[in-house]
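Sample A.
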Amino acid sequence: MEGNIYMEITKESKDHLIEQIENLCGRRPLFYLKFCSCKEFANDVCNGDLYANNPTYFRDLELKTGERGQGDSCELISYIETERITMCDSETGNIIMTAPKGTFKVQFEGDNSVPMVCFVGIPLREMNIVDADEKHADFFFPFTEEEYALMEEKFGKYCIIISARELENKIQKYCIRQNCDYVFDGIDYCPQNRIDRIQAFNTGSKERFLYKNEDLSYQREYRLALACEMPEDHFIKIGKLEEATILETSELSNMKFTIHYTSHNIEDSIKD
């Protein structure tokens, strides 16, 4: 990006612009990223063959390698730590019994075999807007130099940029054909003891697939989890992706995205 000169955009102007574009395009990402270690796997993705793994695989991966990231020993497990438990008479307040601190573990056995496919998704408001006028807006990825430097090592040599609308439509049609429920949304990185996370596990809500611990927030993950049997070859075959491009991961920092528009509202928001 060196050598390019862009206008400075205030936070207020950016917020106005993003809000107007979201009114047209929605709040979900405009595209998804899928990283692969080799070109063959990248071609599989473009052909609509999405390789799935289950929570057991990701738990075992951290235990096997000792590295937390792609592997996550807490995957689809809710741990609730208590400092002290007391039982008392509600009328007198007298303490009847106490118990020392401990850890509760909540896990659904059926989750161990659920097929999951992971992507990176970046909503428009998280992108870096670098230039805008009445007709267009330019964006770069929001990754830091350190994140770019580690991407190939952590995620893979190749990256597929996929149209969000096409991917979401094909996933929906696949699940209709297979007659299976699914969830596909962004991961919420939060503490284990946050109330909505606890409730998702207590009620068995499918949203329980969308929580991970805060230390993994750099992954910016969007997750697909399907209520079906894992295919024997592990491939979720949604059909060829026409709007997908393979890049080397090292090229991502140079990628500029331009949105062209003619909306009267957007023009007004930039002029304000």
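Sample B.
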Amino acid sequence: MNHEPYVSRFDRWWLDFNKCLLKKIEAYEDTVSIIIQGPLNQRSINTIPDYLKYGEVIVSCWDNDDLSLLDNHKQNIKIVVNHYHDATSKAYRTHLKNPIIFQNYTTHNALKQATGYFAIKTRSDESYPILDPLLDILKKNRDSKEWYKIVTSNIYFRHDSQFKFHPSDHLIAGNKNRMREIFEESYLRCATGRINGLGPEQLIGHSTICTYFDPILKCRDKPDPNRSKEQMKKHFDIIRIRNLPHCTWTSSYRKYDLLRSEEDWCHHISDI
């Protein structure tokens, strides 16, 4: 005698539907959008095949760039062409003669096109061919209650005693929706002149904190200099560049030379 409980055809369909849906959700939560932002540079163009191994690649460049440099890749990538004069007309503040809005403008527009669960923002004059260690941190945060955390490199990530709310802006990664919120906020601050003396990295630090809605407190965070260490630990993680094999970075402070070594930065968020 069969004692198995009766399951209707609808119940079986509903169970199968949810199993299929769960698989699709799990697959989506591993997808990645890699953004290359800034003036076209052969250094990042040469890294596009490596980036494509991880997911979609979005190149966010300028209308005065030579787009033919992308001819060998344009069938496999998304290209966002930003209007240089539109950005410069909103450039209220510069950093080392570079308008702060440029990074936020190109990243903000690229994120509008991103479809991955994670988004990774890279500079066009840098190269990060092996991103697995970064993705390991992103997935760990995704599977915990810290899904909202932003992961940056340690390049110029400053100790709290040096500069408050100063993450790195060379390599930035996180949940795509969080990244969209952050760079929309930083872009709008640039476009409306609400930077209030912040440097480019501090603007991103402030934007990261103030766009997070705390579900327990039921309000948005607000950058507080008296709680800066606590807030930075809450909202950021750090990936050391020495843990990203074969990466190359550069800096205006170093005359845009090709660099690989670390300096006296904050290497782990607990040390901030």
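B remarks: The chain has one domain: 9-271. The mean pLDDT is 89.
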